[in-house]
Write a structure and sequence with these properties.
The chain is built from nine helices and six strands; from the N terminus they run βββαββααβαααααα. The protein has a four-stranded mixed β-sheet, with helices on one face. It is rod-shaped, with a radius of gyration of 38 Å.
């Protein structure tokens, strides 16, 4: 079962970085693991070849701990004893010595005296020696050592993401508190406009009665009641309060909460827009615009959460 829960609780940032160096099973290695924002989990690996099953195991390990983000994992591997080994080529040495003997014989035949050739000079001739490396580490033991070290790397990586997530959570908590304050301010403004709205409604009813003496009073009252319902913001305020409670609950929960909060911001925006369209007063409109501004700021921060 996939588990994206954070051991320390709280949200995780989608951005993070960790690097490690290690050695074992006849090899030295260096990791780096980094991530930036992404809609889903996009994992890209750059690994040395020849270690069967390593890529699949690494993908599974990352998927257990990371839910979203564009993740890049790099591994550089060098055999511990991979120094260049000097080996003689019997055929090359024989050919070189034969060639030297031929040169010396011809030089002597022409009365030329050549300097003695040293062994070091012979070794430096092309084809006399072969450059190579020792045998590579045993793949199964190396894979086990790499996976054990990668678990530590992944722990460091998530620790950084958790720290950034905690910082984001504090910012988001303050923004949610601000939305709650503006919601209650909107409720007070809506209540304060109620007497004026009622007086406006009575005046409208009187104007209709004067302009159309024969109008059906019940029909006129029904139309005015419909107008009053459309201008009422009680439902929008109630939904805003419900969204605030849900956002706080998500922020206090563990695991991947970014998409849940993204959905809530859409709902926040919907209610703020409706509040502005129904405001009927400059004060309520101003509060609605402030709400939209804070919600937009919150949405930008949520883009960084897993």
């Amino acid at each position: 079962m996939v588990n994206h829960r954070s051991a320390a609780g709280g949200p995780l940032s989608m951005t993070g970085f960790a690097a490690r160096q290690g050695s074992g099973a006849g090899a030295d290695w260096a990791w780096d693991l980094r991530a930036v924002n992404g809609k889903g989990l996009d994992l890209r690996l750059r690994l040395p070849e020849g270690i069967e099953g390593l890529e699949l195991a690494l993908r599974e390990a990352v998927a257990r701990k990371v839910a979203r983000g564009s993740v890049q994992l790099n591994l550089k591997l060098v055999a511990t004893d991979a120094t260049e080994a000097l080996r003689l080529s019997p055929a090359g040495l024989s050919a070189a010595l034969s060639a030297l003997a031929t040169v010396e014989a011809q030089a002597a035949g022409q009365g030329l005296e050549l300097a003695a050739t040293s062994a070091a000079q012979v070794l430096g001739l092309r084809g006399v020696t072969l450059q190579g490396t020792t045998e590579p580490p045993e793949p199964l033991a190396l894979r086990a050592a790499l996976l054990a070290d990668f678990a530590l790397l992944l722990g460091d990586f998530n620790a950084m993401r958790r720290g950034e997530g905690a910082a984001l959570a504090r910012v988001l908590a303050a923004q949610i508190d601000r939305i709650a304050e503006l919601t209650e301010a909107a409720a007070e403004a809506a209540e304060a406009r109620r007497p004026q709205a009622a007086e406006s409604m009575r005046a409208a009813l009187a104007r209709v009665a004067d302009a159309a003496p024969g109008a059906d009073p019940a029909r006129v009252a029904a139309e005015l009641a419909l107008i009053a319902i459309k201008a009422d913001v009680t439902e929008e305020l109630d939904r805003l309060r419900a969204h605030i409670a849900a956002a706080r609950a998500h922020l206090a929960s563990e695991g991947a909460i970014g998409r849940k909060l993204e959905f809530l911001t859409q709902e926040f925006v919907r209610e703020a827009n409706t509040l502005c369209s129904k405001s009927g007063s400059t004060q309520l409109t101003a509060i609605g615009l402030d709400l939209k501004h804070v919600i937009d700021q919150m949405r930008e921060q949520i883009q960084n959460l897993e």
